């Protein structure tokens, strides 16, 4: 199991001097440097566009990325003797962004802004994310459906009781964010983003940013898509700020780090504020509850809900006061 997929290196003319495990992958030291071997179950077509995207970034940007390597036949997917598909990528020796280090956090945000300046490709309709307004409408319908489901249960566990206590507040926030988005210039912002072919990383978090000795590496672009790039910044900031109880000054420093590298216009800032105003974590907890076994609820999920509720006032203070 340790060396699973190692045999595909032959198709690249590479030999492994040593190997070790990474996150769900095998890291190999070869004559061409470090490479990662990872099982791949996605679309070869999207992978081809991903290779083009990473080529664009690597030639126009100082940020290192895990570029895809073609095998000796020019393909990006290689099957081993058991016919399991793998991809091989360039890899880097570095540590993940430390979410307790403001230096690492600002460095990660600056790297994202730098990436956003070069992550542009002619739009392929298949990979355009659904409009945010449709996403909020869908999620709000789901919240109302889950509320109805829980209300109709005769016996309710602790999670369900706490959920019912808080749903009115968070559903109001969700519907207000939808209303604000509908009244904003979002459609114009999205149209301009698609016109310029703006691409999002899709999963920009601390695990996908590596601190190298000389620069920063960004990895795991598998969820890339076309959308307003504020989505990436929002996702990264939200994950960090949830860990720091929505610290307003920390948020301002992150925004400033991004803005100094890639200035944000008024529409982008407003879009970011609206994203922060949506109770994403509350929806995630409710959705996880509804889509998994409801006969037994993990204490961890109840703890997450309690923590979320405890952070409500700090979250609201952040939403109302955040600015560059």
TrEMBL record:
The organism's taxonomic lineage, starting at the top: Bacteria, Bacillati, Bacillota, Clostridia, Lachnospirales
Q: Does the keyword Cell inner membrane apply?
A: no
Q: What is this protein called?
A: CotS family spore coat protein
InterPro entries attached to this UniProt entry: CotS-like (IPR047175), Kinase-like_dom_sf (IPR011009), Spore_coat_CotS (IPR014255)
Checking Gene3D superfamilies in the record gives:
3.90.1200.10
Query: Which UniProt keywords are present, listed alphabetically?
Result: Capsid protein, Virion
User: Which superkingdom heads the taxonomic lineage of this protein's source?
Assistant: Bacteria
Q: Which organism is it from?
A: Blautia parvula
């Amino acid at each position: 199991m340790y060396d699973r997929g190692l045999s595909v290196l032959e198709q690249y003319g590479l030999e492994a001097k040593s190997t070790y495990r990474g996150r769900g992958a095998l890291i190999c030291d070869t004559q061409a440097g470090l490479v990662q071997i990872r099982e791949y179950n996605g679309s070869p077509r999207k992978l081809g566009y991903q290779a083009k995207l990473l080529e664009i970034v690597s030639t126009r940007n100082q940020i290192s990325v895990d570029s895809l390597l073609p095998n000796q036949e020019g393909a990006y997917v290689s099957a081993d003797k058991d016919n399991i598909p793998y991809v091989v990528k360039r890899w880097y020796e570095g540590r993940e962004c430390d979410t307790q280090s403001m230096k690492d956090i600002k460095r990660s945000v600056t790297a994202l802004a730098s990436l956003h300046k070069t992550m542009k490709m002619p739009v392929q309709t298949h990979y355009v994310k659904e409009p945010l307004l449709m996403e909020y409408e869908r999620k709000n319908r789901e919240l109302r459906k889950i509320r109805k489901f829980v209300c109709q249960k005769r016996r309710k566990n602790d999670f369900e009781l706490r959920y019912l206590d808080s749903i009115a507040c968070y559903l109001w926030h969700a519907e207000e964010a939808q209303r604000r988005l509908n009244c904003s210039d979002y459609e114009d912002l999205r149209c301009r983003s698609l016109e310029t072919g703006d691409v999002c990383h899709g999963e920009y978090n601390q695990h996908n940013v590596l601190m190298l000795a000389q620069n920063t590496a960004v990895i795991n672009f598998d969820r890339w898509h076309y959308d307003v790039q504020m989505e990436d910044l929002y996702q990264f900031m939200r994950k960090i700020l949830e860990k720091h109880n929505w610290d307003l000054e920390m948020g301002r420093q992150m925004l400033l780090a991004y803005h100094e590298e890639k200035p944000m216009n008024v529409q982008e800032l407003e879009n970011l504020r609206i994203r922060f105003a949506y109770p994403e974590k509350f929806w995630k907890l409710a959705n996880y509850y509804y889509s998994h076994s409801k006969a037994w609820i993990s204490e961890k999920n109840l703890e997450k809900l309690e923590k979320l509720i405890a952070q409500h006032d700090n979250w609201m203070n952040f939403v109302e006061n955040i600015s560059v």
